[in-house]
Amino acid sequence: MNRLIYLDNAATTQVYPQVLDAMLPFFTEHYGNPSAIYSFANEAKKAVDQSRSTIADLIGANTDEIYFTGGGSESDNWALVATAEAYESKGKHIITSKIEHHAILHTCEYLEKRGYEITYIDVDEKGTIKLDELEAAIRPDTILISVMAANNEIGTIQPLKEIGAIAKAHGVLFHTDAVQAFAHIPINVDEMNIDMLSASGHKIHGPKGIGIMYIRKGVKIRSFIHGGAQERRRRAGTHNVPGIVGMGKAAELAKANMDNNIKNVSELRDYLIKRVLDEIPYTRLNGHETNRLPNNANFCFRFIEGESMLILLDQNGICGSSGSACTSGSLDPSHVLLAIGLPHEIAHGSLRLTLSEQTTKEDIDYTVDKLKGIIERLRSMSPLYEDFVKNHKE
Amino acid sequence: MYSEKVMDHFNNPRNVGEMENPSGVGTVGNAKCGDIMRMYLDIDDNGIIQEAKFKTFGCGAAVATSSMATELVKGKTIQEALEVTNKAVMEALDGLPPVKVHCSLLAEEAIHAALWDYAERNHIKIEGLEKPVNDISEKEEEEEY
């Protein structure tokens, strides 16, 4: 069994060879510190500027509004904590959604313990945030709305433009965690009235350990990592030049191929969804049918549990992920699946498959063929299925 | 993450299935937490467990502990079966990751639930056996849907 079918691209992606090639000279050749004066560091400095400009261009931002960070989680933490501190005099109320990544939710919990009040807005059964609830939650002391661009588990794309318009109308800052959406779907910070945006390198075929935060000019949040004058004094630490170059190269490739990728990957995703729903009974698709990330498919198979499914898929060389309790390290299944209204026992049987541009139709066919047998096998062992069959015979 | 024995019992579960006329059957766990085990026992007139079968909804460890538990109780007397504790199941599987220890507890409870059902059907009292707390009625289960 040598075949590897990697369908966990929402977890991380392969670094593209072109990206690695762009990065390599910055380890051994142009290793100078871009903050240095001497000309030896010029190549590194130029490369950092170039990457910043490419990334800014991709989201319609100005170059000096892009700040390099250690990754998406750092950006999310920075956005929330620094906004809370900087705008404390205006108020201590933040609005977010129930389906955010834990980098947002756990930071919100941290702030709650320090006297901030957080409102968690509901989503509908497809995972789209309820805009009327969002607007109604805004108070005079609301300082920030943070809603993700697209959900990491179920792929639903949020109405960023509408959220941005609401935030602007009420004079509230709008941050979006775009870790899953950045470079995958078009985002424009001006058209969508986004004030802050988090993104990560390794979700777009760039390296791990690098991310960005976009901060609109005029937003007064300060440094989160202290210690140096890098990043306009807002993010200390020697620049991760190879990482920055890699993320820039990955963004460049993503921009050049975005239209094609969206079209091709969505088609393959829809083919996967159709086959699974047609050929495996008692299965549901989680998330929005069409308004979802091009590469995301998320299913629930009734009567079975996710971890068992993942082990059996792994034995067939297929990498996927699940929102079951056993894979989350707690007793509860994914908060996202519960937020869209699924009962616990159905949420335990979830499977997320996330494609990339490299995924082929053969990969999908192989996966669905294996998956059918796996589901059948686990159901034949399931007391829930046994009861279900008995009840339906009577 | 799992020992070879756990993987073996997950991949080739022993005694998986239903039983037509069991002497006792017990279902423990709940769908909310993601683990349900049902154990069927066939106990002869001498009080020896002739056969054990199981069905499990749950993770790899849940399947493996159920499988091992059925293996361990087969051929044993009721009193001997009561000594098949979660620790015994875990040891027989060469250990479990800490987060999966509850699966072995569930396996122990499944044995107890099946024995409790056997005792009730036969109007006897099994010394040392208390009513399993985790037992769930079939009715509650159906309502979940």
Summarize the structure.
Chain A has 394 residues and is α/β, with parallel strands linked by helices.
CATH architecture of the largest domain in chain A: 3-Layer(aba) Sandwich
| Overall pLDDT metric of chain A | 96
- Reading the helices and strands of chain B in chain order gives HEEEHHHHH
**Percent of residues in β-strands of chain B:** 15-25%
Shape of chain B: globular
* Strand ordering within the main sheet of chain A: 2-8-7-6-5-3-4
Strand order of the largest sheet of chain B: 1-2-3
Domain Aminotransferase class V (chain A): 5-366
Binding site for [2Fe-2S] cluster (chain A): 326
Binding site for pyridoxal 5'-phosphate (chain A): 72-73, 152, 180, 200-202, 238
Keywords (chain A): 2Fe-2S, Cytoplasm, Iron, Iron-sulfur, Metal-binding, Pyridoxal phosphate, Transferase
List keywords for this structure.
heterodimer, A: 394 residues, Aspartate Aminotransferase, domain 2, 7-stranded mixed beta sheet, 3-stranded antiparallel beta sheet, 14 helices, globular, B: 145 residues, alpha+beta, Sufe protein. Chain: A, 6 helices, 3 strands, disordered C terminus
Summarize the helices and strands and which ones pair or pack:
The complex is a heterodimer of chains A (394) and B (145).
Chain A: E1 5-6, H1 17-23, H2 25-28, H3 42-58, E2 66-69, H4 72-86, E3 93-97, H5 102-113, E4 117-121, H6 131-137, E5 142-146, H7 160-169, E6 173-177, E7 196-200, E8 211-215, H8 241-279, E9 283-285, E10 296-301, H9 306-315, E11 318-319, H10 325-328, H11 335-339, H12 344-347, E12 350-354, H13 361-380, H14 383-393
Parallel strand pairs in A: 1-11, 3-4, 3-5, 5-6, 6-7
Antiparallel strand pairs in A: 2-8, 7-8, 9-10, 10-12
Chain B: H1 4-11, E1 24-30, E2 35-43, E3 49-57, H2 60-73, H3 78-82, H4 86-92, H5 101-121, H6 138-143
Helix pairs in contact in B: 1-2, 2-5, 4-5
